[in-house]
Design a protein that fits this description.
Length: about 325
Amino acid sequence: MNRSINKDLPHTPALETALDLSVVFAVDGAPDLPATVGSYRAALDALGVSYEVFCVIDDHDADLRRSLDHLARDWDELVILGQRTWIDEDAALLKAVNRSRGDYVLTLAGWPEIDPDGLARLMDAVHDADMAVAAREGRRASLRNRVLQWIFGRFFGSSVSDIFCRTRIARRIVLEEVSGFGVRQHFLPAIASELGYSVAEVTLPQADDRTPGAATFVFKPFAHMRALFDALMLYVVLKFLRRPLRFFGAIGLPILLAGLVITTVYLMARIFGAVALADRPGLIFAVLMIVLGIQVIALGLVGEIIVFASNRKLNQYSVKALIRHRPSDR
């Protein structure tokens, strides 16, 4: 049975049968997505679990849609999600996760990243953690990988070794929460770790470079700039969402103090040294620093008021497990 779903159709997962695993391919511009999806079929069948496969694509790509329809003719587990308005891969991933029925969600790239036989090891690892992330064996870390590792370590205190690998598996409730931030998929392990979920890393063999559908690196400067802004946004949201004054105060207070010190020096020179202030651009700069510092601190105060007013709607923590001890029978 060939199943194709449009994003505008209603979805009621509670009325459908639960599955063990949901597999998601949410990618745009893959060299040969049908070949990549088909290459994982044997490995997924070998897991011995009930599963479904989501392919989220731009519905305007008629050729890709026909190729996937042909693949789905004899693969009942394959579901095609055609997005009429394609935003980006991260929004597509969230859409598929929200529609998924599996207890666990496995995300895969639209091109070969790992040997499909390694999925079994990844599936075993997630039973002892909330999320298991693949690291490609023998892969040399690129400059952008090392830069992002430094950013993650600096901002969030943790990072995986193979940041750009999209092969990961997590409990559905975890992936629903971390993908809801709407940032690039590379940030998902860092977000999960920051929210208190356990993240395990599993080294798996790389896919053969001669495998059909292999991707080639394309430098995208705007995408890297967006990743930097996403990291800054996550740093503020995850660290200072409930205490915005700590963030804005840490920026505004040094600026304010520096402006006050410089202004005081000029005033003392004018009062006790008879130094003219008419031709002192440094004084104007110092006054601007004072004004800027006050504005930044005031922005943090406004944020504190907003957070305080809506504090009841914010979850301070999440419960992982409830442990009860029964009194021993006497």
